[in-house]
Design goal:
- 23% of the residues lie in helices and 35% in strands.
- By secondary structure, it is an alpha+beta fold.
- It folds into two domains: 1-75, 2,3-Dihydroxybiphenyl 1,2-Dioxygenase, domain 1, CATH 3.10.180; 78-135, 2,3-Dihydroxybiphenyl 1,2-Dioxygenase, domain 1, CATH 3.10.180.10.
- The longest helix is centred in the first third of the chain and has 12 residues, at 8-19.
């Protein structure tokens, strides 16, 4: 689950101290103009999203909707197949083709207008045979 916030430092502290979430990783993804802090709650991860630029997608999201739930991420084994199946099912795609994401993953988003109002991120974790950004 991705949560848009103005400050990762301010948002992460209460989640770690009060809820016992585990700090996993902090990463910046320049192509998305964002910094991501991953916190673990068992097998589930909360991804805090902070914009690194006033014109970045997270800054625009916060300006329009305020801080809060930005997207839900779903792990898929083959992103290319998942996009083909989503397209065939009539879902609107934000990304026609996979792009590099945090933690070396390949990602693509499904448009909220076709998913009940929720932005959905499809995530394919890197494998030894496939690195992020390769086809």
């Amino acid at each position: 689950m991705g949560v848009a916030c103005r400050s990762i430092a301010e948002s992460a502290t209460p989640l770690v101290s009060a809820l016992g979430l585990t700090d996993v990783a902090l990463e910046e993804v320049p192509s998305q103009k964002a910094r991501m802090q991953f916190l673990a709650a068992g097998e589930t991860h909360v991804e805090l999203l902070e914009s690194t630029s006033p014109d970045g997608p997270i800054a625009k999201f916060i300006e329009k909707r305020g801080e809060g739930l930005h997207h839900i991420a779903l792990l898929v084994s083959d992103l290319d197949v998942a996009l083909t199946e989503a397209r065939a099912a009539g879902l609107r795609l934000v990304d026609e083709f996979p792009r590099p994401g945090a933690r070396g993953a390949r990602i693509a988003f499904l448009h909220p207008k076709s998913t009940g109002g929720v932005l959905i991120e499809l995530v394919e974790r890197p494998t030894p045979n496939r690195q992020a950004g390769s086809a």
